[in-house]
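Customer ticket, subject: "Can you confirm the structure for Glycoside hydrolase family 43 protein?"

Message body: Hello, I'm evaluating your service for our small team and ran a test protein. I'd like someone to confirm that this is what the system normally returns, since I don't have a reference to compare against.
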Amino acid sequence: MPEKSIEQIDLNQLIEKAISKPLVSHIYTADPSAHVFNDKIYIYPSHDIDAGIPFNDNGDHFGMEDYHVISMDSIESEAVDNGLALHVNDVPWAKKQMWAPDAAHKDGKYYLFFPAKNKEDIFQIGVAVGHSPIGPFIPQPKPINGSYSIDPAIFEDEDGSYYLYFGGIWGGQLQNYRDNIYSCNNDLPKKEEPALGPIVAKMTDDMLEFCETPKEILILDESGSPLLEGDNDRRFFEASWVHKYNNKYYFSYSTGDTHFICYAIGDSPYGPFTYKGRILEPVIGWTSHHSICQVEGKWYLFYHDSSLSNGVTHLRSIKVNEIIHDENGLIQTLSPYGK
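Agent reply: Thanks for trying us out. I re-ran your input and got the following:
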């Protein structure tokens, strides 16, 4: 639910109708990236804190400082907080705002990908390496060369290739880039122009760098034209995720200021992807961020809302619900508080 509408709704009534409960309640968590490693569920969320910064469109009030890894033996079991996995003070190049992370496993090592602002207040993406899915993770001394913006999502294709998706507008700074080059003079396109797309790059074998120049992804409408900047209900804002179903690539994302989780389908990890619909309707709180993970043959949407904090946008809690792909491969839309 948009921040401005919080006072206009009965939060208690919504919370009672919620189709799921927070997985953990002793800390605030958000932006869950879920994976199954060694037959166990691991969730890599942001760790929300109250940084005492007023709400603004740049997201300065999201002042996260560290990461905790949440694990579950099964989808029905209790979620366990495995403690501190990485702190901003341990990252040589990072200054603040450890936003939405993701993780991957390759050749016995675990890789935590995370965004943070550098000493010049510009977001970049770092990677930290560990020998356990719960950390601790040791960060590389510098961010990934050529990385920028926020919301890294790492996808392993069936051939063993790994692709990193990233980008987010407004506070995520994607609008300041054109052709991977930053300028403070760049801004969002005009409403009648194609919207900015997320960015993707294939990773090197050691998972520490891009092995190619990052490319912008096209998200198309039903007629094959790029979604426009003014199409706020469908255009990309942030929160990239990719999963593969029936040999098709599903790119899902948040529309930001209209608060939907949407998806598009394509035939390549590079896209283009054709818009197909919504996965999740708006939640309590301004942001919406998710991941999609297959567990024991079923597909699940991991997401967050601000129900535990009674609507405080920067104090969120992760949740999970099953999602259904129909016979045509389309995803049935979830209403987080019922019909």
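A couple of notes from the result: Residues 3-323 form a domain with the Tachylectin-2; Chain A fold (CATH 2.115.10.20). The two ends are 15 Å apart (CA to CA). Feel free to reply with more questions.
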